[in-house]
Specification:
By secondary structure, the chain is an alpha/beta fold. A hairpin with a 2-residue loop joins strand 7 (238-239) and strand 8 (242-243). The structure holds alpha-D-glucopyranose.
């Protein structure tokens, strides 16, 4: 026996061996208990959940961050349950914890993986210090429908950009290893294709053909998992008739099979129970079986697993081996997080980064998330020293909570500095005239207009903050009309009538249709929901202390009727050409049926977006020239260099995001007219010139073809490099077999 003990003693104490040793001692009920995630918010969580935890029937809790409550729940698990397996504490840490950074769609405008990583890193430190060790982020759903409220938490419309930034978030959350202080286990979501919901209605059905699934929606998940994401969350949505949470093709064949993912898969909130509502499962037993057999490990909030799996095992419907595999993945995650040795998170208690440094990071992130969409006659930057008075108007000018955006459960609005607060700080109270004009962005009560007009009349310049309150985007908050809500446009009219320059700042969780706004303003900054430091970041931009560098991660439609509209579209058999588009007002009455171009466009809105993917203005100008490729032809396995010269031809320093787009004009599947395949941020002083080099390999040319093989096909490729997805500097090359 001593020998056996000795052998056991020499076993390396790895997370795997710790998990296996625990599993070997567990009863079936205790194993299933690890698969149960429950909401611990609300009244008396200890009284409500303590018994279940003591019985080993709860594996993880969500939505509880009170330190004393968390300590007591964990104490029960560790000291009163039979095996003392700690709870996994989870939370949606989406774009910050106590300090709130810009919405993910705003952070995506930075096109900076380093910045996105650093924001996630800071959020992880704050959250881990509060006892959280598992976050349900990054959300990498490709979003091409501004009606969908969750576009706010997406990284935009493009698979490549979402892949790069989603992977950066994973690295930020998980740091140098999940046992290190201040780290969170990432959970990439929502697997998969959630953003393709019909009508832009959250939770609605998605119909995604396999080629589109593999070439558009899956790549960001693959990238996040390659970056080491510890877990995956399944989507609520029905994907081609089989809801993701019970979809063996998606979870089994692709995630577990082709990708060999062996981490934890958790359902979204009650998504297992919803398999009944979808019409896939007849009852909870069937739903539990469908989810378990598809590849789900943890059941969030439906209780299907805890209530049904033991009986299904006793009936021989679900095997013990399957339960063991599910429970082992959960135990391994807990062991990897260091929970078995430090269940109360002592190592993380001091992990929160310094508050000022975090706020400074939030300011930089907010600055780089803002996109200058219009700047007529150099209306911006403002000479804040030279202005007599600045009118600061609008329902979003002084909203410390609303500027945070959606998914900010633990956001601290006392850390917010609003545009009004920051501008008063920059100019002095006496030089700022403030009037909200409207009580909320949805208000139609114009009684505040007079005061707003008076403020404008007494000032030299009007800066008006408009948009959507945080609640108008986010989960289940979709809009069929994506214009400015309420009487905001009327407020703009009233301000314009005063004859002063009007600078509009829009804070919203989605692209809004802006044609009517653009007609009424001299300059427009799209700020999304910038987080706590909206105000200081805005002052940095409008004062010219910082040159705006944000670039759109999503196309802006001219009208809601254009949706879905995205740059990486298919060519169709009748692509529109600008010169052949006749608009509805140009059509002669009685015009014969074939009197003008038969191509893919709308008579009233044409075929181009209001603003294209990758677009953003600067206070300076960037000129592109001398695009060359290192070879006209490459063989498989070879690489190709693409070089371009970028010049800052303006009078001030600026940062450009040089973007490289590719097209495979002829292939076994039709390919998008353009696909982002590289980008580089380049900081240039006035007059400075830089040669930017991209290196393309065969993988950059590859796509998932008819045989579901990821492969590049020989033939010609077009390449464009420029400042947005309409770049016209072109070269081509050939890949030969
Ligand atoms: C929500 C969301 C998901 C979130 C989860 C836990 O319904 O769909 O993104 O992580 O429930 O809050």
């Amino acid at each position: 026996m001593a020998h056996a003990a000795h052998a056991a003693d020499t076993q390396p104490d790895t997370p795997q061996s710790r998990a296996d040793a625990l599993l070997a001692r567990m009863s079936l009920e205790e194993k299933v208990g690890q698969l149960h995630t429950i909401d611990a918010s609300g009244p008396d969580p200890v009284g409500r959940l303590g018994g279940e935890i003591k019985a080993g029937r709860i594996g993880a809790v969500i939505n509880q961050v009170d330190p004393d409550t968390l300590y007591e729940l964990q104490r029960i698990a560790v000291e009163e349950s039979r095996l003392g397996v700690p709870l996994l504490v989870s939370r949606d840490v989406i774009h910050g914890f106590n300090t709130i950074f810009p919405l993910p769609i705003g952070q995506a405008c930075s096109w900076s993986p380093e910045l996105v990583r650093d924001c996630a890193r800071a959020a992880a430190g704050e959250a881990a210090a509060s006892g959280v060790r598992w976050t349900f982020a990054p959300m990498v759903d490709i979003a091409r429908d501004a009606r969908w409220g969750r576009i706010a938490e997406s990284l935009g419309e493009d698979p490549y950009l979402a892949s790069v930034l989603g992977a950066a978030m994973v690295v930020g959350f998980q740091g140098d290893g999940l046992s290190r202080p201040g780290t969170l286990a990432a959970c990439v979501k929502h697997f998969a294709g959630y953003g393709a919901c019909e009508g832009g209605r959250d939770y609605d059905a998605t119909n995604i053909p396999d080629n589109e699934l593999r070439n558009t929606y899956l790549p960001p998940f693959r990238a996040a998992l390659k970056a080491g994401a510890a877990s995956v969350m399944t989507s609520f949505s029905d994907i081609d008739g089989v809801p993701a949470t019970g979809n063996p093709y998606l979870l089994g064949e692709i995630l577990r099979g082709e990708w060999s993912f062996d981490g934890v898969v958790v359902s979204d909130w009650d998504a297992i129970g919803q398999l009944i509502t979808h019409g896939l499962s007849a009852d909870m037993a069937a739903a539990a079986r469908a989810a378990a057999e598809a590849g789900v490990d943890m059941d969030m909030m439906s209780s299907a697993f805890i209530d049904q799996l033991p009986r299904l095992v006793h009936e021989g419907v679900v095997t013990v081996d399957r339960i063991d595999a599910m429970a082992r993945r959960v135990l391994l995650l807990k062991a990897t997080l260091g929970l078995l040795d430090d269940p109360y998170g002592a190592a993380h208690r001091s992990a929160a980064p310094a508050r000022q440094a975090t706020l400074d990071l939030a300011r930089r992130a907010a600055r780089e998330s803002m996109v200058l969409l219009k700047n007529d006659a150099g209306a911006l930057p403002l000479d804040l020293a030279g202005i007599g008075r600045l009118a600061v108007i609008g329902p979003m000018a002084d909203q410390p909570y609303e500027q945070l955006g959606t998914w900010v459960f633990d956001g601290d609005q006392t850390r917010s500095v609003t545009p009004l607060g920051a501008l008063r700080g920059a100019l002095g109270e006496h030089r700022v005239a403030f009037a909200p004009g409207l009580e909320t962005t949805r208000s139609r009560d114009r009684s505040g207009f007079a005061a707003a007009q008076a403020a404008a009349r007494s000032s030299d310049v009007v800066l008006v903050c408009l948009g959507e309150e945080a609640i108008l985007s986010g989960e289940a908050h979709c809009r069929a009309d994506i214009t400015l809500p309420g009487a905001q446009l009327a407020l703009l009219d009233a301000l314009k009538a005063e004859g002063k320059p009007v600078i509009a700042v829009i804070m919203a969780g989605r692209p809004l249709t802006l044609a009517a706004v653009l007609e009424r303003v001299d300059a427009l900054i799209y700020a999304w929901h910038p987080g706590n430091m909206a105000g200081p970041a805005l002052v940095d931009i409008v004062s010219g202390a910082a040159n705006p560098s944000g670039r759109l991660p999503v196309s802006f439609p001219r009208s809601v009727g254009q949706i879905p509209i995205h740059y990486n579209r298919k060519n169709t058999g009748r692509p529109p050409q600008a010169e052949r588009i006749l608009y509805i007002d140009e059509i002669q009455v009685g015009a014969p049926q074939t009197s003008f171009g038969m191509s893919a466009f709308h008579l009233d809105d044409g075929y181009t977006p209001q603003f294209p993917f990758g677009f953003g203005l600067s206070y300076t100008r960037f000129i592109y020239a001398d695009l060359v490729v290192s070879a006209g032809e490459i063989a498989r396995g070879e690489t190709l260099d693409v070089m371009v010269t970028v010049t800052n031809s303006g009078e001030r320093f600026g940062t450009e995001t040089v973007q490289l787009y590719l097209r495979d004009p002829t292939a076994s599947l039709t390919r998008p007219v353009r696909e982002l395949k590289g980008f580089q941020k380049v900081a240039l002083n006035a007059g400075e010139r830089r040669t930017v080099r991209f290196t393309l390999g065969e993988g950059d040319l590859a796509f998932s073809g008819r045989e579901r093989r990821f492969r590049a096909e020989a033939g010609r490729f077009d390449v464009w490099v420029g400042g947005d997805s309409t770049a016209d500097l072109h070269a081509s090359f050939t890949l030969r077999d």
